[in-house]
């Protein structure tokens, strides 16, 4: 930029966003979008057999958040993706993006609405005969964008995803992670409000997965997007998501912010995000075993030493972990207390300090 200051993108006098790369095509959004799904049902007929793929799915994704939908194969994730984009019409229920109901709009309005949803797939599905830049440009060509505008947007998008030096490379010359970056740039070419990522890292190695998730978070922050990640990998939820839904047999069985779901020690999402060993050590001395779960400021507090000092007891930490999930730190510890310890007083002390306590078993 020849030493000049970064371009400033103006929507009106009250909205100014700065970028370090010339993202001229971006629009600063005064009212960020929301995703709202209400009582969504999808029923298929396979011969005489009725298949309920989605059974009353309801969820709400706040603007600017990264929301994960996690579930095993057959849970209904692929059907949900198709219904969210109206590629498959739901049997009943509603889908609203940016406060616009999609189920009953005209075909022309639906095409416009779909352009506001960027799609990132498990495999980038690039066209082998096109270069990186040409793959990113393809959606813009389809809608008749002027060539100069296409060149401008493609240049900015490739810089955003870190592929400027690979603009003329063909898919066969790119790594799996680089191909996924091309897919993300292509998904952003239509200036979407929502980025819908369907298993975006399941075909990648762990290091590349980390890099792609970091890129998705960076894109969310810089472009003020709302992101929905469909995944079967709990590590994706741990690293990238602000909130999560557990999908099973076409139903949402758990849902909430990461901090909320983790704070429920008996919840399945909590146990999956902060797992503990299933069995106690066989040689554990007689006493009482407690599982402790705490977050935020408490995660950095000397909880164990506080118990030992306050109640003059030995505390044996037999398992545990401290993890950063989203913007919050969580600790999940399993401790053993000796016979004779005042368990009621210790439990009340922990609860008063914001620590969830779950007794395991006495020996």
UniProtKB/TrEMBL annotation:
GO molecular-function terms, A-Z: ATP binding; ATP hydrolysis activity
GO biological process entries: amino acid transport
PROSITE patterns from the UniProt entry: ABC_TRANSPORTER_1 (PS00211), ABC_TRANSPORTER_2 (PS50893)
Family annotation (CDD domains): ABC_MetN_methionine_transporter
Every ABC transporter domain range: 35-274
The keyword Lipoprotein appears for this protein: no
First and last residue of the signal peptide: none
Origin superkingdom: Bacteria
InterPro entries listed in its UniProt record: AAA+_ATPase, ABC_transporter-like_ATP-bd, ABC_transporter-like_CS, ACT-like_dom_sf, MetN_ABC, MetN_ABC_transporter-like, NIL_domain, P-loop_NTPase
Keywords: Amino-acid transport, ATP-binding, Cell membrane, Membrane, Nucleotide-binding, Translocase, Transport
GO terms for cellular component: plasma membrane
Pfam families given in the database record: ABC_tran (PF00005), NIL (PF09383)
Database matches in PANTHER family: AMINO ACID IMPORT ATP-BINDING PROTEIN, METHIONINE IMPORT ATP-BINDING PROTEIN METN
Subunit: Homodimer. Forms a membrane-associated complex with FtsX.
Annotated family: Belongs to the ABC transporter superfamily.
Function: Part of the ABC transporter FtsEX involved in cellular division. Has ATPase activity.
Protein name from the UniProt record: ABC transporter ATP-binding protein
Organism: Paeniglutamicibacter gangotriensis Lz1y
